[in-house]
Design a protein that fits this description.
Blueprint (H helix, E strand, L loop, with lengths): L1 H6 L10 H14 L8 E2 L2 H8 L3 H14 L2 E4 L3 E4 L57 H13 L3 H4 L9 H15 L8 E4 L2 H12 L5 E6 L3 H9 L3 E8 L2 E2 L1 H10 L4 E4 L13 H14 L2 E5 L24 E6 L11 E4 L2 H12 L7 H13 L1 H19 L1
Parallel strand pairs: 5-6, 5-8, 8-9, 9-10
Antiparallel strand pairs: 1-3, 2-3, 4-11, 6-7, 10-11
Helix pairs in contact: 2-4, 3-4, 5-13, 7-13, 8-9, 8-12
């Protein structure tokens, strides 16, 4: 008993409860073979005296270990390490040893397209590809709206499971907002709320692509999209971009030779060249989509930031055949931390992707989504966009 208690180190000032420290240390002794199967532990009174803790602390630890199956107790006989545990070769106790597992004991395939460094934003000055200035984000309004959703209303509804497609309130507000600003003809049934463009793109890749399908993107293009296509097992083909955007003649030549399943396009501002897709090419792209049956994934990541004239209407606004999946995100207009985006497509596509989303993420942050709906309804987001547009234009001109 004294040998055991000598190796137990309890810190009453630590954040972790003392009983939990005791539980974890005894579990580790059993796992490492220090305490072997059948070993008789001291009584709760004896161990409490040795450790200078309350007897209830030891009792609670023993009860947890009994419930987990590490210990077994017999009336009148005492408490023992469970007899059915395998024999483990003992090793020397190393108090406060931090055993960190660096490499798994099984093989992992790491494709090249997944080996991308994460951007380090913790620096005083950086150039990026268009992140919003979070210093001007309507933080107070977002905080107030989120708090309102958290504290008011029926808690069972507000804090429970919601619609996989996203908050009904937000989908209603998005339909109104997108129809008014982008010329869409969407209803809430045409909208799936996601956690940003990358999630929407991943859902489409998983739900609409088969291994070996041909996906066409621009060259140069966005590596994030390309990584998703490759991860889905698609055959990735790239076509050129000139001063008028994606080369639609080159796309048509491809379609005449092989079946194309999906074309990824950033029609408003091609990423990364920023050129807009010219009107005649927009018409031809939609016509080719109907003729050859390929999906158009339109990533409209920065619709609100067009400085020379009014923003161009998205392809989705002229799509009357259900060929376009339109994607946008508040992450690019408010803050990357605001993980609220949306897919707009035909109702059966939204139903299909929502059923897929259910087995991945179940639902988004309903509180945040309702908070965003409130900000859209009150016009706060619209005012923020007008303000940031003026500010970003001034900065661009100065630069």
């Amino acid at each position: 008993m004294q040998a055991l208690s000598a190796h137990l180190v309890l810190d009453k000032e630590a954040a972790s409860p003392v009983y939990l420290q005791l539980t974890n240390q005894l579990t580790n002794f059993i796992k490492t073979g220090i305490l072997i199967a059948g070993y008789r532990l001291p009584s709760t009174r004896q161990l409490a005296e040795q450790l200078n803790v309350h007897r209830k602390t030891v009792t609670r630890a023993y009860e947890d270990l009994l419930a987990q199956g590490w210990l077994e107790s017999y009336a009148g006989s005492g408490t023992f390490v469970a007899a059915n545990l395998p024999l483990i070769k003992p090793k020397t106790i190393a108090i406060n040893e931090a055993d960190t597992v660096v490499k798994a004991g099984f093989a992992i395939k790491s494709p090249v397209h997944l080996q991308r460094a994460v951007a380090n934003l913790n620096i005083p000055l950086h150039l990026d590809d268009g992140f919003p200035d979070t210093r001007i984000a309507p933080v107070q309004d977002i905080s107030r709206a989120y708090r309102t959703q958290l504290l008011t209303g029926n808690p069972y509804v507000r804090l429970g499971y919601g619609d996989t497609r996203g908050s009904e309130w937000l989908r209603n507000e998005l339909a109104t907002y997108l129809n008014a600003t982008r010329g869409l003809r969407a209803t809430p049934a045409n909208i799936l709320v996601v956690r940003g463009t990358i999630m929407g793109l991943n859902l489409c890749c998983t739900g609409l692509l088969e291994p070996g399908d041909t996906v066409v993107t621009a060259n140069p293009g966005w590596l994030g999209a390309e990584a998703n296509f490759l991860q889905a097992g698609a055959r990735l083909l790239k076509i050129g971009v000139d001063e008028y955007g994606l080369n639609i003649d080159e796309l048509e030549a491809l379609c005449q030779k092989q079946t194309v399943r999906l074309v990824y396009v950033t029609s408003h501002h091609h990423y990364p060249t920023t050129v807009a897709l010219r009107a005649d090419r927009r018409v031809n792209l939609l016509a080719l989509s109907r003729k050859y049956g390929f999906i158009i994934f339109e990533d409209d990541y920065d619709y609100d930031f067009h400085y020379e004239n009014k923003p161009l209407m998205p392809l989705a606004s002229a799509d009357d055949a259900g060929m376009v999946i339109y994607c946008g995100s508040f992450s690019k207009t408010l803050s990357p931390a605001i993980r609220v985006g949306y897919l707009v497509a035909s109702e059966n596509v939204i139903e299909h992707l929502a059923s897929l989303r259910r087995i991945i993420d179940r639902q988004g942050d309903t509180l945040l989504e309702n908070g965003m709906a409130e900000l859209l309804q009150s016009g706060i987001i619209q005012r923020h966009l007008r303000k940031s547009l003026r500010l970003y234009r001034q900065r661009r001109d100065l630069f």
